[in-house]
Write a structure and sequence with these properties.
Length: 196
Amino acid sequence: MIELFPIPVGVYRLEREFSSEELDFMKNQEWRQNLSNVNSVDNFILNNKELSKLKLFAEEALRDYVRNTINPVDGNEFYITQSWVNVTKPEQYHHGHVHRNSLLSGVLYVNIGSVDDGIHFTDTKYKRIELLKKGMTKYNSSEYISVQTGDLILFPSELEHYVELVKSSSDRISLSFNTFVRGNIGSDELLEGLKL
């Protein structure tokens, strides 16, 4: 098998506990209602000094992901744009969505409600027919990634994802962010060069 056009999903681990200052700051935000959960009104939450160490961790993971997947020439820099906190209470879910106006997105898990928590990615490629399957493989299924508190998942922003109904008794808290790039995009030879 040749895996043509694979979709890379990066998994990084915060090798420490969240500090009480970080947790208090994230939990004491002003909230806006989403379809079936809430997210912080502050859409640039990683720019606050209380979360500066988490931002450094996210930026280092982003650099590693870009180096190992896109492998751009020197002079291109991926950076975090928007960032926000999500709270999904028991019996709530996070609807399927993509992240527009972003190249890569990340989700850092601050509190996982149960040991079987995860993120679902949806394969949205057109399928002419749908056949019953004997079992699931990486070629015939959408992907479920199990997560733990402290995990950071990085993925292309156009990859649709969702969270099932929270079945535990505690809130599921995550910090999400979007990214963009500055530098040389395209090539002069193809008359598509653009400097951001």
